[in-house]
Amino acid sequence: MRLKSEQLAQQLQQQLLPVYLIHGDEPLLVEEAADVVRSALRQHQAERQVWHVEGRFDWTQIPWQAQSMSLFASRRLLEIRLPSGSPGKEGSELLRNFASQPAEDTTVLIISGKIAPAQQKAKWYSELERIGATVMIWPVTLDRLPAWIRQRAAQRGVSFNADISAVIAERVEGNLFAAAQEVDKLALLADNGHVEDQMVLASVADNARFEAFGLMDQIYAGQIDRIPRTIRTLQAEGVEILSVFSAVSWSVQRCVDMALQLQQGRPLQQIFASQKPPVWEKSQAMIRRALMRHQPQQWLMFLQQLSLVDQAAKGGLSVSPWQLLEALCLQLAGVQLNTATAEIRGDFH
Which of 231, 236, 240, 301 is deepest in the core (most CB within 10 A)? Predict the structure, then answer.
């Protein structure tokens, strides 16, 4: 069956299906939908196993059929992270085999990036949809973002007017992680559910509080002396590494796209206007400097380095993800460090 994300909780209350496939290109919303599934399985004392499908992943290592569980577990949750959106030939076959004979007391949760419409017609996808549920997460467009902010605030018992939500939407430039963090912060500061305009303006103007996007401003501007302090402050304050990583990743991918268009000879103003959302006018000067700082090929290399930070944050590398992130951010800002290169390659353990 196909479900909307808002239907997921109700369905889980009625029945636990063998498979839940959640996919889309909004990482925050994908993760929150996956949390709904995890929460339901925790109520059944499920034993959770997580598998990251990257590179030459061996699908046969996943224990598809039920094996011995811990004394306190009544179910298994096999969580499979599929960043590419495609399981490949081996994965497709094993997923179809599981669909033909689901294991008893087992739920498979597949978390994926965007799966293209053509791929949704593949047999593995249709078989999983037949025995389970697929949830496609649609992106929140820039014109819908203020309404999304107001809705999220209402869920937290806070009332925002249209002007407040528009200010937040403009500042986060389409990034839902940053918008969600700002809503949560203002909900804590609100007086009986009411938020003053001045409180919002002070909040979004405070880069130290605005966490990851303050860091991106420093990277764009090449403020190399501030970057290490900001990252260490974020770490000391207990900010989730994946929240910071998401903001950096979103911004770097955006720069890669602009750098490649620039290489093809397209005027920069047209490139800025073509972005979704368009590059904020006040940010254009420092983003222009950042684009000129590196060749397009170097921007592509930064994507590989981001992948290593992601792996480290999820426990796949024996190196501090904060250390990798700091080295990468310094390189993005224009610093050439041998230590940064070594750390990002994973040479330090």
Answer: 231
Helix, strand, or coil here: 50? Answer: strand
> Would you call the peptide bond into 102 cis, given omega within 30 degrees of 0 as the criterion?
no
| Amino acid of residue 54 | E
CA distances from 54 to 51, 82, 286, 310 (A): 9, 8, 34, 11
- The distance of Cα 28 from the centroid of its chain, to the nearest Å, equals 5
pTM of the model: 0.57
Q: Which residues pair with 112 in a beta bridge?
A: 23, 82
User: pLDDT grade, residue 343 (50/70/90)?
Assistant: very low
> Where does residue 225 rank: exposed (0-12), middle (13-18), buried (19+ CB within 10 A)?
exposed
Of 95, 145, 144, 340, the closest CA to residue 228 belongs to 340
215: Cα within 13 Å, side-chain hemisphere? 30
Contacts of 313 (CB under 8 A, 6+ apart): 241, 242, 245, 321
Model confidence pLDDT, tens digit, residues 57-66: 888 888 887 6
Query: Is 311 a member of any domain?
Result: yes
> How far apart are alpha carbons 105 and 118 in whole angstroms?
32
Helix (H) or strand (E) holding 4: none
Are 241 and 130 found together in one domain? no
8 Å CB contact between 45 and 73? yes
Residue 159 in domain? no
Instruction: Give the model confidence (pLDDT) of 278-316 as tens digits.
Output: 776 667 878 888 999 999 999 999 998 999 998 998 888
Query: Domain residues for 312?
Result: 235-349
